[in-house]
Amino acid sequence: MSAEPKQCRDIRTLTPPLAQAALNIIAALKHEGYHPFVLETKRSPERQAWLLKKGTTWVKHSKHQDGKACDIGFKDAAGKVIWAGDYPGWDRLAHYARYYKLIAGHDWKKRDCPHVEVP
């Protein structure tokens, strides 16, 4: 497999309503004592194709490519990224996504806990 294309974490690459909602969600999660951070924002077609080939996405075209999706992750107090599916932060992230009228990947049958997108 080819080298992994660079991922973007720049919140300014998102549509303005999503960028503002993501900033609000991150602030709310921090207020609750979590350590959220932006995992990925806008995605190039090359990165999308690479992720599809790798099997970490199941769609040819993602809302990430249009600046309409954002992945928000969490770190523990030591700075290690948290991936455990039962981590309570995922429930809180989904709660805030719904509050800001976003779709939470946490709610999908095939869960994508970090993912939030515009409807």
Task: Write up this protein.
With 119 residues, the chain is α+β, with helices and mostly antiparallel strands. The protein has one domain (11-117): 2-Layer Sandwich (Muramoyl-pentapeptide Carboxypeptidase, domain 2), CATH 3.30.1380.10. It has three helices and five strands; from the N terminus they run αβαββαββ. Strands 1, 2, 3, 4 and 5 form a five-stranded antiparallel sheet that branches. Helix 1 crosses helix 3. The longest helix is centred in the N-terminal third of the chain and has 16 residues, at 16-31. It starts with 15 loop residues before the first helix and ends with a strand. The mean pLDDT is 96.
Question: Mind sketching the topology for me?
Answer:
Blueprint: H1 16-31, E1 36-40, H2 45-54, E2 69-75, E3 81-82, H3 88-99, E4 103-104, E5 115-117
Antiparallel strand pairs: 1-2, 2-3, 2-5, 4-5
Helix pairs in contact: 1-3
Quick summary of this structure?
This protein has 119 residues and is of the alpha+beta class. The chain contains 3 helices and 5 strands, in the order H-E-H-E-E-H-E-E.
